TrEMBL record:
Species of the source: Lentithecium fluviatile CBS 122367
MF terms in GO: protein-lysine N-methyltransferase activity
Signal peptide: none
GO cellular component: nucleus
Organism superkingdom: Eukaryota
PANTHER family, A to Z: SET DOMAIN-CONTAINING PROTEIN 8 (PTHR13271:SF76), UNCHARACTERIZED PUTATIVE METHYLTRANSFERASE (PTHR13271)
Entry coiled-coil feature ranges: none
Designated name of the protein: SET domain-containing protein
Length: 481
């Protein structure tokens, strides 16, 4: 519908029409404008200084609170729009999340823009705003040949998981709404239905690439402010927040001076890694020299007799996170890893308990103490064999990092095929370089940690390299078996 609908008559509105739309909707610009940056038109539209700007407390832009695409505002729209209300109600728990609510709202606004759609919904100011949003070349829109360039990177499994998730969501939406008369007519009709999976990908891309976390509002899309491009660190020119009345405002950072015609940038999150930036926004800053953060999948071995129970009780992502710490070294973090390296002989066990409502559930215990979602590590930290458990984790992570490095090196730098676009080609190449560098630095960190833990007295005793009787009195002996 979104792409096909444009071909049938619903075209993108030219960005030159945005000021008129904004004025009628109460959006205020002060010394700025929205449009292509001269010399960088290929980057699309952005926020530009229309005057020379000096640090000031006055907002550069003010967007009325009723124009914010938040879950709260969409629920207010639904009170006067029974079609929207019916739609949200049919989707149950999926529409309880902000993302679910916004995606359904965007899909309905796109529907109202299509020629031939009549007597559906109540038109609101945000119908026209959807027309100003450009198509986003996120990795979910890359071709299979382009996705092959990502083999060995953390982005490849992330895109695969996202596509599977989007397919499940699309089927959920179809199943929940196909019995609604107007949805059956305009969305799912066998011959003339407007909605395809591509449309669901489009509204997901709109939200994923433009949602910002606003104080007091939460995740939301904010018209016009969401046109601002990203820059990290000192290059960030402006901040976004809400004022006392709940309006969204764009403020110049203290001490910043922006010359006329220069770009007004915001940050989408300075701590986000290269994989996440490409995944959500489809670009990388030219100044990015580190992958910053990576999430690498790990699995519980098939020969672990407790594997089914561990997977059943696990509530954390099955992997570990590498990240640059204070710009000096690569650190790692994982809750899942401790569930992988601990076994029954250590003191981990599972019991089937009956709940108060008569149902049965599996509960994990550590040395007879009931565990909750996050208490395993805290229990292990106070255990006499903590250094042993850390060593197991470090060895497992070291092997996993080495295998990831091997995969990246084996694939190397694939040649660019005829069907591969320049943008995905360059992004994939940069991501491979940044992640390989981080993995190599992480391997060095893990090797140092492994060596230090092997020198630990606790590990030495556990391995039988130190005789306890030579170092402890009879009353202090500990069983490390």
């Amino acid at each position: 519908m979104i792409r096909r609908g444009r071909a049938e008559g619903w075209l993108n509105e030219p960005i030159e029409a945005l000021p008129t739309w904004a004025t009628f909707r109460g959006v205020k610009f002060d010394g700025i404008k929205v449009g292509p940056l001269p010399g960088f038109e290929h980057r699309g539209s952005t926020v530009i200084a229309d005057l020379e700007l000096v640090s000031s407390q006055a907002p550069l832009m003010t967007v009325p609170k009723e124009m914010i695409l938040s879950r709260e505002n969409i629920e207010l729209f639904a009170k006067s729009d029974h079609h929207l209300r019916e739609l949200l109600h049919s989707l149950g728990t999926f529409a309880y999340s902000t993302r679910g609510t916004v995606l359904i709202f965007l899909l309905m606004q796109a529907t109202l823009c299509c020629p031939g759609v009549k007597d559906v919904g109540v038109r609101n100011p945000l119908v026209e705003y959807v027309k100003f949003l450009p198509d986003e070349l996120l990795p979910t829109f890359w071709t299979e040949e382009e996705l092959e360039l990502l083999i060995g990177t953390t982005l490849r499994p992330a895109v695969r998981a996202k596509m599977n998730s989007l397919l499940r969501e699309f089927e959920t939406v179809r199943t929940a709404t196909e019995t609604i008369d107007w949805c059956a007519k305009y969305w799912w009709h066998e011959e003339n239905g407007l909605i395809t999976f591509d449309d669901w990908m489009q509204v997901d891309a709109m939200y994923r690439s433009r949602a910002l976390e606003f104080p007091g509002v939460g995740d939301a899309m904010v018209p016009c402010i969401d046109m601002a491009n990203h820059a990290s660190g000192d290059a960030t020119a402006a901040l976004y927040e809400t004022d006392e009345e709940g309006n969204a405002v764009l403020l110049l950072r203290e001490g910043k001076e922006i010359q006329q015609g220069r770009e007004i940038t915001i940050t989408y999150g300075d701590e986000k890694g290269a994989c996440e930036i490409i995944f959500s926004y489809g670009f990388l800053e030219d100044t990015m020299t580190s992958a910053k953060a990576m999430f690498i999948h790990i699995e519980i071995p098939d020969d672990d007799p407790l594997r089914p129970a561990k997977l059943h009780v696990s509530t954390t992502a099955p992997g570990f996170r590498l990240f640059d710490k204070e710009g000096t070294h690569v650190a790692w973090d994982s809750e899942f890893i401790w569930l992988v390296v601990i076994n029954e002989e250590d003191g981990l066990e599972f019991k089937v308990l009956q709940t108060t409502d008569g149902k049965r559930e599996i509960q994990a215990f550590w040395k007879q103490q009931e565990l909750n979602d996050t208490s395993l590590r805290s229990n292990l930290e106070t255990d006499p064999l903590w250094d042993v458990y850390q060593l197991r984790a470090v060895v497992l992570l070291q092997d996993r990092v080495e295998s990831q490095i091997t995969t990246l090196r084996e694939v190397g730098s694939p040649e660019r095929g005829d069907g591969v676009r320049q943008g995905p080609w360059e992004l994939a190449a940069r991501l491979r370089t940044l992640e390989l560098d981080m993995l190599q630095r992480a391997l060095s960190t893990l090797e140092s940690q492994r060596a230090a833990l092997l020198d630990s007295d606790t590990v030495q005793r556990y391995l039988g390299l130190i005789d306890d009787n030579e170092n402890q009195g009879e009353d202090e002996q500990v069983d490390f078996s």
